[in-house]
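Take a record.
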Amino acid sequence: MPPAPERAGPARSRVACFTVAVFFAIAAVAPASAQAPGYVKVRLVKAGLMLGAGGGRGVLTYRGRTYPFIVSGLSLGVTAGATVNRLEGWASGIKQVNDFAGTYRSVGAGGALVGGFGGVHLSNEKGVTIDLQGARAGMEFAANLTRVRIALK
């Protein structure tokens, strides 16, 4: 006669239930502390001749909530003209919403003649990167280093 199969005792079942409960508890907490991307929409007005300056307003949508913000910036390099930009895209590397505020830097070149489409990649000291693209209206030609300051309202 073959030996009878071993039955799991009550202690083994409790360990298995405890292990499953711990797994689900960790899974429920992990998304709250993980980085989540945010959706960004911004309207910028920029003008300059050699030294450019601009500003605007935007909205960050992050984890189901919206956060209005103000943008101000300065560009140094070859700049001539004035544009209005309506940009949108994604911000990544956000651990908490306050990481979004700060000073961003970008090096780039671009232009617009009456209208066009452009993009920008920005990064700040907290590890947040923003990739935006959208329509431009106006006339501008630029090759510069840009410093942008974002402040949450």
